[in-house]
């Protein structure tokens, strides 16, 4: 997908003309409007562009415009002789087929040039330009991509020419729906007045009015069938002369102008109105000093937001500069994105489930999307313990469900009364599981919960050694003050060696530390615990902390064999999939579903939790949905004769069909990606060639293991970053890159070390017109790609990151 | 919308033939398939139905079928002479225009008759029937409703005939998208082989394959243009004879059969697979003894689920009985439904936002759907205190946000340290605010939280007098044992008198009770409170308890003037919109957004909370989204120099554009409904004529007040129910009806009194083929309509309810 600004200018009204079908009069409508604008008293500059034209030269739309709308600057960007669909014409032309990116960039440059030219010629209201498509809205472009998908990055406002013929009501509404589901704004529908024959407009006008899409009836085209050429031309000239000032043409033009003005006004007022009305998440509003600090998103596509230039980001206030610019979505929209913004497959999946079900009540009921998703997840996690799926709405609620499950199972087995005894969880320092009180209580006291009045940390959180690359070397390092327990930093040849448990063996130091700590807590202090709860591998909100997988693995092993209730010593169960010690809960809300390159992060640990939580990437980055997977032995703890024994949890939209169906569509796409060329290319720099292959290996417990540990970020950039004098260390895994900057005032969430870099990435727009939106966690700036992001985009981001790091360090 | 079973039989494969446009060969494709099935060795019975035909008799599709596919039973249900779109033909016919319901019922009856006939004729595999539509997928039916909407209740599997002509790629894909967004399954796309001219199939085949929609290339139709009639017919006969056994026709037929078989197999296995994999919300799984207890939903539309018959519900195992039946969604899908299932406007709105944005990160950013929704809500609540909107994902999370807001504001003003001091909330007994721990802690101990190990009730919950109709009279009654505090039951002339605070004046008894209780808690026991938290008017999960509005109003008044911290006496603030006493939090998750007939339930109390929470109906019943609205004085409590002073809460999908845009679409529709004829009709039986009017009344603080209190359920039925000997009392307000049954073993969540009635409603399918799905809360059976439900459907539900109540009472 291209990186290109949205096609919106202050001094140029650019409109894309789509047809409900071929032969509906797109060129006639374009000619009428071109002529109309050229004749308006404001003295508009007018141009017309046909990005792709097919058919013999003498039938070109370009020529037609020249003939009937003199004074209009006309251009065709790509021409093919044969009068067939562009994809066929391009293929049959024996010339090289232009890529979608080439077409889009050529069109954008052409429009930008118009904006510049019109600005020089400085007409009062600027210019008007039309971009006429070929055939219908989804007729394929040269590469075969349907036009409405091909041109989507520009998201030009649409003038749709409806179909006045028999059957045209249906094709016109369908065309509108296809455009809407790709996120286009339809500024006007026009339809030629067929003088009462089929009266399509009589139906379509009111129909679209209800949808707040303005529709106009254009004057009927003369019937020139069979007339001699000169007579035909005279008739058409007379038609255009007469009709270009027709009231409906004028109303159409006014509507296009009004909508453009409203769009600009809206974009200009949004930041201010937002500050007035919106209470932002995770935001200290006192620190937002002016409207420019609010990012205004017009839309998004692929890896990019289409963001309004702010006074900070805009290098120029020239009216011929584009109003929008593409900003790389470097937080993957808060860790959710999997398949890119504005993905038409996900839109269609959402629409289908909405159309088939809307939402249907799920208690005691079932529907296909929820059942299929549950079965796919159970199959995908490759964990024989996990057999049941509980649905909720987001990571935080799914974690609370998991905690309720684990605590009940533990209390029931050990005969504890949770309503009077304090039952805690065991976790890691720096963990974070969500913002609802129950999820908060499962983390140690930290900045997030410091001022939450009902927060009560319930549990114990272990220190742990962490993985990072520093000065080109992968190391495992103890936190400050814990060198005695964990030993000095260990160095590894490459990332994959850290996961090679066969070579690393077991760590007696880790075992001793964990056992001694548990003994102190349980035996000496008499504390009770109901779960071991961890984000496997990377603690996200805690600052992208990469935990030594051997430590997490060891912790699970020991907890599973440890006796937490003296009355009930832990022994090997009859059912090998029963939980022992404590239920193990993995919070894979952030780390799961390919974020780190694999279906589960648990597979990196070669460990199988009893409860597993997924959210964020579950719907490919479209809408909230979460699942808590559990084992039979957890499930059994809730079986009883009383209703009160059950898990009495359930949100109204539990297993909403839209979310489930989108998730099914997304998981299928992600699975395909995991076997595809692009990921193989990413893997190749990280993984020894022998193990980068994708062949199924029956010896592996989890098939994702065959890919090793790898990242979408290039090894060379990660290495360069790790050598930078401003950088303390770097981590990269899957689509995640995190750079910990040196901070003399100490690391942590309150550090400002990374703010300057973040602002530079956002506000210093490069020559390529791109900015990068990123988020920081204290001294850590992280970047996260979508799972579909292509190397060319990441390379540009890596280049910008290295540049800004150097620049910012000079300042 | 019609109440009709989904068109699925075991012995009849019914297919709807749609065309990508008019003139694409629907009838030729139908003829080919009809002939194919008739000639198959299994000796299929074959029929063909044209529900609506336009054009002169000798051009009828029916005749065409008779001519070329002898042995096929052909029928046309509605005929018009003029060869134009059915809506025009019907209008011009000067005959009465059949309603959508009439067309649907006629078609369903006809298909059911085919199923019966074919069963009698007992062919091996049963019958095959085609229902051929007119024109394109969205060509209007006789009433003007687009066909794909008109026929949607039957949700017949679709055979789409693609467009082989120039432009046909676009119109075919668009037609598919229009069908999918209405929830149709497209079992096959066929396209005539144009022998290399435009090669549409060459594109469409692989395109649809990626979408898992099978596509087939049918043999080209002979060019009979200009041939004499006899020659034409001979050519066509030869074509059909030759082509009906063509391999692609056979593959199409196999695909249709396979898909039908898979659909039936899936429906048959779903309950069992669900029991294996799904952990249901609020469900004691031990009590589910067999697969039949799981409701299997094929789909839903309007007010109805299309549910699979279970052995309990099915009166017959005959293969000619429909597999599905419409079940009235009597819990409004867990209180969420506003605009009916499968509403194409909401589907399209969801798709548009998905196409324009996907999800975009919201921290420090803004986008149009979120901003527009926030502004609409602020305007809609007509509460000058509420100025800020915080987004989250569901009622429970939004309540937690509200609690964090209120507690912080109170602790900050009163100098309390919430991390060491216990700060509670004040609420009502029987309240319920959600399933996450923080929301749970805000309710008194009850069955829902009894076995939640981390639950700690934090606060005090008042008794309250409640409203109900008993034996035809509206009364306000004290709970058992509280008669001394609240006085004897009071009787009212009608429901609206209960809300007439001008007449009722203030209640000294209420004031005394509240003040004395607060004095005991605060002054004597030294307890600290941070919020008054209530569901206004109706406590939903607590058992549909209708609180005396005067009591809630009095409680708010007293809390606002009460001194909760002796160090900071409460006085009248300079800003009249500042909170005093305690922040007042209204949980309108269930009661708000027209569920009770008004935009807010607060307007019934003529009280303005400082914090208000909405969810459920917010998206019209499509997907999860919630908001917490707050006042400036609450917002100000989070302003500070440290990030930790901010409200550090925010889910990844905060303000997801799909939810916000769907909510905007839904609120617009609901507002229109509130001013429309149907609601006026509902109101008329409840509200004195003088006050039922909808004129804006400048004297009213809240414009919804002009409609009084009213219900979609008829006053006469409510009255009859209240007289029933098995009924203790009834409440009705807005779309909610709740019937409290007498239970000798006591009321409450664990009562089984209502189970029998619920099961009778679900399993005893009436002569009209309808069942009713309802939920019970202990001894209370409630029914809830969508806000679009029409009187005819509610009348049928009321009738069934009265009948089953009588029957079940005999048993």
TrEMBL record, chains A, B:
SUPFAM superfamilies: P-loop containing nucleoside triphosphate hydrolases, PLP-dependent transferases
Keywords: Aminotransferase, Pyridoxal phosphate, Transferase
Localization per record: Mitochondrion
InterPro entries tied to this protein: Aminotrans_3, Aminotrans_3_PPA_site, DTB_synth_BioD, P-loop_NTPase, PyrdxlP-dep_Trfase, PyrdxlP-dep_Trfase_major, PyrdxlP-dep_Trfase_small
GO annotation, cellular component aspect: mitochondrion
A Pfam family assignment: Aminotran_3
CDD domains: DTBS
Main location: mitochondrion
Highest taxon in the source lineage: Eukaryota
Transmembrane segments annotated in the record for this chain: none
GO biological process, one term: biotin biosynthetic process
Example of a GO MF term: dethiobiotin synthase activity
Protein name per UniProt: PLP-dependent transferase
Source taxonomy: Eukaryota, Fungi, Dikarya, Ascomycota, Pezizomycotina
């Amino acid at each position: 997908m291209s990186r290109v600004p949205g096609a919106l200018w202050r001094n140029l009204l650019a409109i894309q003309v789509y047809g409900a079908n071929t032969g509906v009069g797109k060129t006639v409508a374009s000619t009428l409007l071109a002529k109309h604008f050229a004749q308006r008293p404001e003295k508009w500059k007018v141009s017309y562009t046909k990005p792709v034209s097919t058919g013999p030269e003498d039938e070109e739309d370009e020529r037609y415009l020249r003939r009937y709308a003199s004074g209009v600057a006309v251009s065709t960007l790509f021409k093919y002789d044969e009068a067939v669909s562009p994809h066929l014409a391009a293929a049959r032309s024996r010339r090289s087929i232009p890529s979608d990116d080439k077409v889009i960039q050529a069109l954008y440059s052409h429009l930008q040039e118009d904006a510049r030219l019109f600005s020089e010629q400085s007409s009062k209201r600027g210019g008007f330009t039309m971009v006429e498509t070929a055939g219908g809205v989804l007729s394929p472009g040269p590469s075969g991509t349907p036009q409405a998908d091909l041109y989507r990055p520009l998201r030009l406002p649409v003038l749709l020419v409806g179909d006045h013929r028999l059957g045209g009501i249906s094709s016109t509404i369908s065309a509108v729906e296809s455009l809407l589901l790709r996120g286009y704004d339809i500024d006007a529908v026009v339809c030629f007045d067929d003088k009462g024959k089929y009266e399509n407009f009589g139906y379509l006008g009111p129909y679209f009015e209800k949808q707040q899409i303005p529709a106009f009836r254009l004057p009927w085209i003369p019937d020139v069938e069979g007339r001699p050429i000169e007579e035909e031309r005279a008739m058409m000239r007379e038609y255009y002369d007469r009709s270009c000032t027709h009231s409906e043409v004028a109303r159409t033009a006014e509507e296009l102008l009004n909508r453009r003005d409203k769009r600009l006004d809206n974009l200009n007022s949004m930041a201010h109105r937002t500050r007035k009305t919106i209470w932002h998440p995770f935001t200290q509003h006192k620190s937002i000093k002016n409207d420019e600090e609010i990012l205004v998103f017009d839309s998004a596509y692929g890896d990019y937001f289409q963001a309004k230039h702010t006074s900070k980001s805009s290098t120029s206030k020239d009216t011929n500069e584009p109003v929008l610019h593409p900003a790389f979505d470097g937080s993957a929209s808060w860790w959710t994105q999997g398949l890119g913004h504005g993905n038409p497959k996900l839109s269609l999946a959402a629409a289908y489930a909405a159309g088939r079900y809307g939402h249907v009540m799920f208690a005691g009921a079932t529907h296909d999307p929820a059942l299929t998703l549950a079965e796919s997840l159970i199959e995908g996690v490759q964990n024989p313990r996990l057999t049941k799926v509980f649905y909720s709405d987001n990571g935080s609620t799914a974690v609370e469900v998991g905690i309720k499950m684990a605590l009940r199972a533990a209390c029931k087995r050990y005969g504890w009364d949770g309503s009077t005894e304090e039952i805690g969880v065991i976790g890691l320092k720096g963990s974070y599981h969500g913002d609802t009180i129950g999820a908060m209580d499962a983390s140690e006291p930290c900045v997030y919960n410091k001022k939450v009045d009902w927060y009560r940390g319930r549990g114990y959180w272990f220190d742990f050694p962490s993985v990072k690359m520093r000065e080109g070397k992968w190391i495992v390092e103890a936190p400050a003050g814990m060198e005695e327990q964990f030993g000095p930093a260990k160095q590894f040849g490459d990332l994959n060696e850290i996961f090679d448990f066969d070579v690393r063996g077991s760590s007696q130091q880790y075992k001793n530390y964990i056992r001694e700590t548990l003994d102190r807590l349980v035996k000496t202090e008499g504390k009770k615990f109901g779960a071991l709860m961890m984000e496997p591998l990377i603690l996200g909100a805690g600052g992208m902390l990469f935990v030594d997988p051997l430590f997490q693995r060891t912790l699970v092993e020991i907890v599973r064999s440890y006796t937490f209730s003296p009355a009930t010593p832990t022994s090997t169960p009859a059912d090998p999939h029963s939980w022992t010690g404590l239920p193990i809960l993995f919070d894979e809300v952030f780390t799961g579903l390919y974020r780190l390159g694999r279906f589960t992060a648990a597979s990196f640990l070669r460990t199988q939790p009893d409860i597993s939580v997924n959210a964020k990437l579950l719907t490919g980055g479209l809408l909230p949905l979460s699942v808590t997977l559990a084992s039979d032995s957890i499930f059994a703890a809730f079986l009883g004769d009383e209703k009160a024994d059950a898990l009495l949890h359930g949100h109204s939209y539990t297993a909403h069909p839209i979310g489930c169906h989108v998730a099914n569509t997304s998981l299928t796409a992600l699975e395909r990606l995991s076997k595809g060329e692009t990921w193989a290319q990413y893997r190749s720099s990280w993984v020894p060639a022998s193990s980068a292959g994708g062949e199924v290996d029956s010896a592996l417990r989890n098939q994702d293991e065959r890919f090793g540990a790898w990242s979408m970020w290039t090894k060379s950039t990660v290495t360069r970053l790790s050598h930078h004098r401003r950088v303390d260390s770097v981590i990269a895994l899957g689509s995640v890159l995190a750079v910990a900057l040196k901070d003399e005032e100490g690391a942590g969430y309150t550090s400002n070390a990374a703010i300057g870099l973040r602002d530079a990435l956002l506000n210093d727009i490069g020559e390529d017109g791109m900015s990068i939106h990123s988020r920081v966690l204290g001294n850590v700036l992280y970047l996260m790609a979508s799972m579909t992001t292509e190397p060319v985009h990441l390379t540009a981001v890596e280049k910008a990151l290295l540049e800004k790091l150097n620049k910012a360090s000079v300042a």
